[in-house]
């Protein structure tokens, strides 16, 4: 898919309407030849009861950005993409501001793809390290 950075951001955020990404205020902000980046605000809507970012919200951000990267870099006329496994290691708590998820390929196969997703805060501190595996399945013709 050949998109300018600006076109990508507009289109990516447009398809998020009425989805979990909109509910969590996830916004795609950048992409390049092998990565996609999104951000999410950290506030009471994504806190766990003790006032820090919920790991489930972090995992949702990671899966959203990784799955979107798979969609961008694969031929969607031929395949559809599904997440099949996600893992997350949370290494630091965050109470406010934004978190940023950058998904990059670890493996870009025809059938399976593996993404490294680093979640950082406003000061570029590592918050979580996630790994997402997706599968590209052929569309029925």
From TrEMBL:
One Pfam entry name: 4HBT
GO molecular function, one term: hydrolase activity
Keywords on record: Hydrolase
The UniProt record lists the keyword Mitochondrion: no
Gene3D superfamilies membership: Hotdog Thioesterase
Family of this protein: Belongs to the thioesterase PaaI family.
Name this polypeptide is given: PaaI family thioesterase
Lineage, uppermost ranks: Bacteria, Pseudomonadati, Bacteroidota, Flavobacteriia, Flavobacteriales
């Amino acid at each position: 898919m050949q998109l300018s950075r600006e076109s990508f951001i507009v289109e990516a955020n447009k398809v998020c309407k009425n989805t979990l990404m909109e509910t969590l205020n996830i916004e795609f902000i950048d992409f390049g030849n092998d990565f996609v980046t999104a951000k999410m605000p950290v506030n009471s809507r994504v806190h766990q009861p003790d006032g820090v970012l919920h790991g489930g919200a972090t995992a949702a951000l990671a899966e959203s950005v990784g799955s979107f990267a798979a969609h961008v870099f694969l031929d969607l006329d031929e395949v559809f993409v599904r997440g099949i496994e996600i893992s997350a290691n949370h290494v630091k708590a965050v109470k406010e501001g934004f978190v940023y998820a950058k998904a990059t390929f670890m493996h870009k196969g025809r059938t399976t793809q593996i993404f490294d997703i680093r979640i950082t805060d406003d000061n570029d501190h590592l918050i979580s390290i996630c790994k997402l595996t997706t599968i590209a399945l052929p569309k029925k013709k």
